[in-house]
Amino acid sequence: MSWTRATLLALLAVLLALSLSPETAGSAAVDGSTRNAKSPAGQLRRIFMKEADASNFFRKRSRRAVKSQDEISAEQRQVLAANKRKREFHEEKRNEFESYAEEDNDEQSERTRESTEQWREFHYDGMNPPHEFNRHTA
User: Fold this and answer.
1) What is the pLDDT of residues 69-113, one digit of tens each?
2) Cα–Cα distance between 11 and 6 in angstroms, integer?
3) Which of 5, 15, 53, 57 could form a disulfide with 49 if both were Cys (CB 3.0 to 4.6 A apart)?
4) CA-CA distance, 131 to 125, in Å (whole number)?
């Protein structure tokens, strides 16, 4: 029974707070003046500018968009420097890959040579001289 009393008291407190707060009452009330309803274009006039002002804005904008020769040269230098850094980076990566591939190829050749040598030693029957002797005498 005590939880129902606590709930009832909480609801009454919320209702009292809502009824006494001036923000809630003002925002829920309908504005009695009809000046906004009469001229909705008045608000639009504040957002949009006149045609003459707009054309002047774009004319000024086009004048500002022209870059000086110094700005163009600076941008070209930046682009050339970026391209040079990219070329150096890719050249370094290519050199790293080439050295890795060469080292890997050398290791593979060494493993192949060792396995071939082991195969010849295992299959040597003693009748013919080993392959190494033939190579050195020829």
Assistant:
1) 888 999 999 999 999 999 999 999 999 999 999 999 999 999 999
2) 9
3) 53
4) 12
Torsion (CA) 70, 72, 78, 81 in degrees, nearest 10: -100
What is the tally of helices (H) and strands (E) in the chain?
Answer: 7, 0
28's tokens = 């829920």
Q: How many CA atoms lie within 13 A of 2 on its CB side?
A: 0
Q: 112-135: per-residue pLDDT in tens?
A: 999 999 888 888 776 766 666 555
d(CA 138, CA 136): 6
> How many angstroms from the chain centroid is the CA of residue 77?
25
For the chain, the C-alpha Rg in angstroms (whole number) is: 45
**C-alpha to C-alpha distances, 36 to 9, 32, 43, 103, nearest whole angstrom:** 42, 10, 8, 82
